[in-house]
Specification:
alpha/beta; two-stranded parallel sheet; binds NADP nicotinamide-adenine-dinucleotide phosphate
Length: about 325
């Protein structure tokens, strides 16, 4: 991979959401490139610093994408912005606390774009999602589609990456599946289990971001997933095989989940919702041919990428830190 040479001119990369699961992988990857200075934009610099204690030469700057007035100062001097922000508790929205896809994912991206333009930032990389669609009835996919549209219309040079399900030692979903398989006699799967995805190792996504900073994929939208397409059930079976625990799969019909979502919406605390059901049962497959043609990336086979799950200590490493 030639990203070391290709990034020679870049000075500062500001990573919004750099303390999150995907953001941390991006920060670690970029911080290893000697010609780059990485700035993590975070609502809590001390907490973010603790989460990235293994990474040197990173600065932490207080910034909230919902506080537009302070964003321009936070991104001042940056050449590139990477937006990997998502609200706490996603995909379950909590409108009473302002935790919605529309406010944080779409509105936050719009605010970051404005700050980037005001600060003269050259390049904006947005971590979108495989199902992004500004006409989608689902607020998650609609917000990502609208954010993409705002970026494409902004006049900034952009790269939009649309990941399928992303996994790694610090993720929530796949580690959550492995944890459930270790402690429960059955494995509960939302919906039919036939929802499609291309699980993507987070390090491959981070490598792609480094290549984008180096010049690949300018003004392009790229779906990005792993090498292997599979259903949710296939993923669970692969995890079972890797960790050596066989459990019967119990599928909870979508209609039943929707009833649970409707009931939960009436209770305090934003525990579950019908939109979250739609998010969970949606297909998340993607076409990786344009990505591999443009970025020349050798994507990690799922069986290799998930091998860390065989070591329970490593596999549970991230459960305490990734929301
Ligand atoms: N994980 C996946 O499988 C996956 C798949 C496809 C797409 N994506 C997308 O990838 C992006 C990153 O996802 P992730 O899984 O890494 O999320 P995550 O672990 O929850 O991290 C999100 C980060 O956003 C920051 N944040 C939240 N609200 C903020 C605000 N108001 N202002 C500034 N920063 C804020 C938080 O940092 P602080 O607490 O430090 O402020 C947090 O560390 C999201 O857009 C997500 O939709 C994820």
């Amino acid at each position: 991979m030639s990203d070391l040479n290709e990034v020679r001119n870049v000075r500062i990369v500001a990573v919004a959401g750099g303390s999150g699961f995907i953001g941390r992988a991006i920060v670690r990857r970029l911080a290893a490139i000697p010609t780059m200075k990485i700035r993590v934009l975070t609502r809590d610099p001390e907490k973010a610093r603790a989460r990235l204690a293994d990474t040197d030469a990173v600065e932490f700057v207080a910034a909230d994408v919902n506080d537009a007035a302070r964003l321009a100062a936070a991104v001042a001097g940056a050449d590139t912005i990477v937006n990997a922000v998502q609200f706490d508790g996603y995909p379950i929205e909590n409108p009473a606390r302002g935790l919605t896809f529309n406010r944080v994912d779409y509105g936050g991206t719009v605010a970051l774009i404005a700050a980037a333009k005001a600060a003269g930032v050259n390049h904006f990389i947005y971590i979108s999602g495989a199902a992004a669609d500004e006409r989608s009835p689902n607020p998650a996919f609609r917000a990502k589609g609208r954010a993409e549209r705002a970026l494409r219309d902004s006049g900034l040079t952009y790269t939009i990456l649309r990941p399928s399900l992303v996994y790694g030692p610090e993720d929530r979903v796949v580690n959550g599946i492995a944890k459930a398989l270790r402690i429960t006699p059955i494995m509960v799967v939302p919906g039919s289990g036939r929802q499609l995805m291309r699980p993507l190792l987070v390090d491959d996504l981070a490598a792609c971001v480094a290549l984008a900073i180096g010049g690949r994929g300018r003004n392009g939208i790229f779906e990005i997933g792993g090498r292997d397409a599979m259903s949710f059930d296939d993923l669970v079976r692969l995890v079972m095989e890797i960790i050596g625990r066989r459990r019967p799969l119990v599928h909870v019909p979508e209609a039943l989940l929707l009833i649970a979502g409707a009931v939960a919406e009436k209770l305090p605390g934003a525990l579950f919702s019908r939109d979250a059901v739609a998010f969970l049962v949606a297909d998340n497959d993607c076409d990786i041919k344009p990505l591999t043609a443009e970025f020349g990336l050798a994507l990690t086979p799922a069986r290799d990428g998930l091998a860390y799950l065989a070591q329970p200590v490593l596999a549970s490493r991230g459960l305490g830190v990734s929301r």
